[in-house]
Specification:
Length: 318
C-alpha cells in the first residue's frame, strides 16, 4: 500500500507541532510526562511576577507559574502555579512572592503549614503573601540613614549660620599677631646672650656636680635625723605611758573611795539621807541669800528701826 505525500506531510506536521509544544512547555518549566497539581493564590499586586517564573520549596524548583489573571472590577490578581502531584502540600500552606535574585526577578516560595493531615487538592486556593521588593528593602535601609545625614547637615548649617565667622577669624588673626610679637621680643631678648646663657648653664652643672658629691653626707644627716626622731618618739611615748598609768591608779583609788563609805564623798554617795539633808540645806541657803540680796536692811541695819524698815519693805513686796 503506497503512502500518499499528503499523509506524510500531515504526520510530519503533527510531529513538529508536538515537538514545538513540548519545547515551549519545557522552556516554561513544565514537564509533559509528569502529572501535576495546580494551585492558586490571590494578590493585590505581584511586583513583577511573570508566567514561567519558578516555584520553590526551600530554594529548590518544584514547579512554575502557569497563569496570572486580573479581575477587571476589583483589580485582584489570581496567580496559578503547577507542582508535581508527588509533593503533598498542606491546605494551610502559603504561596509567598519572593525575590529570586539580586536583580529583582520574582518566584513563588511554598511555605508548608503545620497541618500534615489535610492536603490541598488541585484547584485549591492557598494563603497568599508577598515579601518586600528590592526597592522597598533598600528604601527601608536608606531612609533612616538619609534622615540621620539630613539631621547632621541641618545641625552643621545651623551652627555655621549662628556663628560669627568674621569675628572668629578676626580674633584668630589677632591672636596669631600677638604670638608673633611675643616671639620677636623673646628673640630680641636672647639675641647676643649666648655667652651668658652658656655661663649660667655651666654654673648649674657645677652646682649639680657639687650636690652629687654631698649626697653621702646628706644621706648620713637624714639617717641621724631619723634616728633622733625615733628616740624622741620612744621617750615621749614612754613618758606618756607613765603618766597614763599614774592617772589610772589615782582614778582607781578615787573610785574605790567613792564606792566605799569612808570619807565625806563616799558617805555622800552611799548615804541617801545625808544627800537629802545637804540638798535641803543648800535650798535654804539659796533662799536666805536671795532674801539678803532683795532686802539687805533686814540683815545689815545697825539699829532696830532700820531692821524693822527692812521687814516692812519685805511685807509690802510680798
Amino acid at each position: 500500500m503506497a503512502i500518499s505525500k499528503e499523509f506524510k506531510v500531515g504526520v510530519l506536521a503533527a510531529i513538529s507541532i508536538s515537538i514545538l509544544a513540548f519545547g515551549y512547555n519545557f522552556m516554561k518549566g513544565q514537564d509533559l510526562f509528569t502529572s501535576t497539581n495546580e494551585y492558586f493564590g490571590k494578590y493585590d499586586r505581584i511586583e513583577g511576577l511573570f508566567k514561567s517564573n519558578p516555584v520553590l520549596i526551600s530554594g529548590y524548583t518544584v514547579g512554575s507559574v502557569t497563569s496570572i489573571d486580573m479581575n477587571r472590577e476589583t483589580l485582584e490578581l489570581t496567580v496559578g502555579i503547577t507542582v508535581g502531584n508527588d509533593i503533598k502540600i498542606p491546605k494551610n500552606s502559603i504561596m509567598k512572592i519572593v525575590n529570586n535574585d539580586m536583580i529583582g526577578s520574582k518566584a513563588i516560595e511554598l511555605i508548608f503549614g503545620d497541618d500534615s493531615t489535610a492536603y490541598a487538592q488541585t484547584g485549591d486556593y492557598l494563603i497568599a503573601e508577598q515579601d518586600q521588593g528590592i526597592a522597598q528593602a533598600v528604601s527601608g535601609v536608606l531612609e533612616p540613614l538619609t534622615k540621620s545625614i539630613n539631621s547632621v547637615l541641618g545641625n552643621i548649617d545651623t551652627a555655621i549660620a549662628g556663628a560669627d565667622l568674621a569675628g572668629t577669624l578676626k580674633d584668630a588673626s589677632l591672636a596669631l599677631k600677638s604670638f608673633k610679637e611675643t616671639a620677636d621680643k623673646l628673640n630680641n631678648l636672647l639675641n647676643g646672650k649666648d655667652a651668658e646663657i652658656e655661663a649660667i648653664l655651666n654654673n648649674i652643672k657645677v652646682t649639680t656636680e657639687g650636690l652629687t658629691g654631698l649626697s653621702p653626707q646628706i644621706d648620713e644627716i637624714l639617717s641621724e635625723i631619723k634616728g633622733t626622731s625615733s628616740r624622741l618618739s620612744a621617750i615621749e611615748f614612754e613618758a606618756l605611758s607613765t603618766q597614763v598609768k599614774s592617772l589610772a591608779g589615782e582614778l582607781e583609788k578615787t573610785a574605790a573611795a567613792i564606792n566605799g563609805k569612808e570619807g565625806t564623798l563616799g558617805m555622800l554617795v552611799n548615804d541617801k539621807k545625808m544627800y537629802n539633808d545637804l540638798d535641803a540645806t543648800i535650798a535654804k541657803l539659796k533662799t536666805l541669800l536671795e532674801d539678803i540680796e532683795k532686802y539687805p536692811r533686814r540683815y545689815t541695819g545697825i539699829t532696830e528701826r532700820q531692821r524693822k524698815k527692812g521687814d516692812k519693805a519685805k511685807e509690802e513686796g510680798e
